[in-house]
Amino acid sequence: SIINIAAISGSLRKGSYNTMLMNSLEDLLPEGMKLTIVKYDDVPMYNADLDLPDATQRPEPVVKLREQLAAAQGIVIVSPEYNYSIPGVIKNAIDWASRGEDSPLLKKPVALMGVTPYTWGTTRMQVAFHPVFEFLNMKPVYKPEITVAQAKDKFDPSGKLIDEATKKLVRKKLEGLKEMIQG
Ligand code: FNR
Prior knowledge:
Layout: E1 3-9, H1 17-24, E2 33-38, H2 60-70, E3 74-78, H3 88-98, E4 109-115, H4 123-135, E5 139-140, E6 147-148, H5 164-182
Parallel strand pairs: 1-2, 1-3, 3-4, 4-5, 4-6
The structure holds ligand FNR.
């Protein structure tokens, strides 16, 4: 049966390079996989008063976020690096999704990648994710590592990934994710 992958971007802005990379995944998917783009713009800041022990209080966008992640057998996170670390918006979404024994993140295979307009970005963000994956017992596909640097040269004006070397790496990463899911 078809493997459903949830893809989530660490940037909410319209012209986001990371969202461009996320939207380019579709064309690079291995056979037997489909992609669901997860939007979370309307997820509020985490507030434990609206969370467990009574999950029925969770804001509607949080419920939707968790459902979309739960429907996926694997997750792809495409995120920028902010101040050498994880952008708050995506960390916030992950925190909401992480709570409870029914968390849709627990033990789930995950592939992480990032885009920076500069030369050296995203590796520190990726390292900052390691303890998060560890705490949630997630299964990261570590290799190949994907940092897309000098972003403006890697996408065409419509936002499609045009860099062949990056495409090859992304395909490999998604194949790794598929293998991880299939065990
Ligand atoms: C950045 N940026 C950045 N880039 C990087 O490579 N390393 C970093 O540590 C940071 N830090 C940082 C902090 C904050 C608050 C902002 C707003 C930006 C630049 C960042 O990579 C750039 O804005 C990207 O274009 C963001 O990704 P999207 O929105 O294009 O996907």
